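Subject: Re: docking follow-up (zinc ion)

Dear J.,

Thanks for your patience while I sorted out the input files. As discussed at Tuesday's group meeting, I've set up the holo structure prediction with zinc ion included as the bound ligand rather than trying to dock it afterwards. The sequence and the ligand SMILES I used are pasted below, so you can double-check that they match what you have on your end before we go further.
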Amino acid sequence: MIHGMLHEVFRKCGKQNCKCTEGDLHGPYPALSVNKKGKQKIVMVKKSDRPTTVRKAKRYRYYQQTLVRIRKINKEIDSLLEKMKTETVSHYP
Ligand SMILES: [Zn+2]
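The structure tokens for the complex came back this morning:
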């Protein structure tokens, strides 16, 4: 897994007579938003790294989404266990 949100970036190439000067930008190119020294930055993924990096970033996103779902389910279970305790446990005498 690779930490970072995956983005698709469109760019101008800088050539004067290119279609991108008319707004038809090049891309999409994969990029990652990463946290560097407390600041969010968009980092372009090198062409040679694209297949592996995109796959690993998608796996990280899936992991994060799954973690959110599991934490929500755990909260529900905890709440139900508390409810069960309140409704069934009595004190002696
Ligand atoms: Zn161009």
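A couple of observations from a first look. The chain has one domain: 5-88. The longest helix spans residues 50-88.

Let me know if you'd like me to rerun anything.

Best regards,
T.
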